[in-house]
Amino acid sequence: MKFLPFIFILLIFSQLVNAQSINAFEIPRSSVIDIKDPISKRVYPIFVKLPASYGRDHNKSYPVIYLTDALYSFQIVSGATRFPMNTGKVEEAIIVGISYSKGSKGPSSRIRDFTHKKDHSWKFETGQALQHANFIENVIFPYIKSHYRVNNSRTYVGNSLGGLLGAYIFLTKPHMFTNYILGSPSVWFMNSDILSIKPKQNSNAHKIFIAVGERETPKYDSPRHDMVTGAQKLVSNLSGEHFPNVEVKLLIIQGANHETAFPTTATQGLYWLFKK
């Protein structure tokens, strides 16, 4: 028994040495694949993270969570879902992050790919949302299906202009995703044109989680647009007679602004969708 404290100290010291020897951190069970859009010829890095049970249960298939803005969102969603998934509180899923096209500078890729109409007043190109959605549906989906064990459940996660893109996809290509998480959606784009899109009749069952920071209004410093009112109007539009089997949930995040709302949006939205 007298050796137990010594062994304990050795274990702690060993852990410290191992921790200090780490000079780079990689997300476990993750990889990055470059996928080319055959229409635009642009190449997009795709981040993939497999759930903990993927290598053990070879007969199991998984839902897929698709993220836009992968350089930002992939780390957040990976970390936020690790404990709930590993402890069985929520359903395990494959996480797929779609990053920006290679060689693009600044926000040009996301502005071009996430907006659905041309607006020549912008510094960067706009209006390629339909082409980007087609790339996701016709190229990325088949790649993921052919390389991983997936089921038919697909969830979209997008923030800001990514939230706008998600709303556009739901209104125009409702078959693409089962569920949607739309964070601080940029409803204001082109004078709130997204609210004027006549949706296709959609009798499919969908769950849509929309969240926005309480402080995302002109009353406070950061946004020029009233994101809260925009989110509320979008909720109303997506709850209409065209969508009899759609469940929409709105969360207004207390104390959050446009820069801080997304981690809560992703965490709460995914828990709402995948909780057991």
TrEMBL record:
Pfam families, per database record: Esterase
Signal peptide start and end residues: 1-19
Top-level lineage group: Bacteria
The keyword Signal belongs to this UniProt entry's keyword annotation: yes
Key word Signal present: yes
UniProt keyword terms in alphabetical order: Signal
Protein name in UniProt: Alpha/beta hydrolase
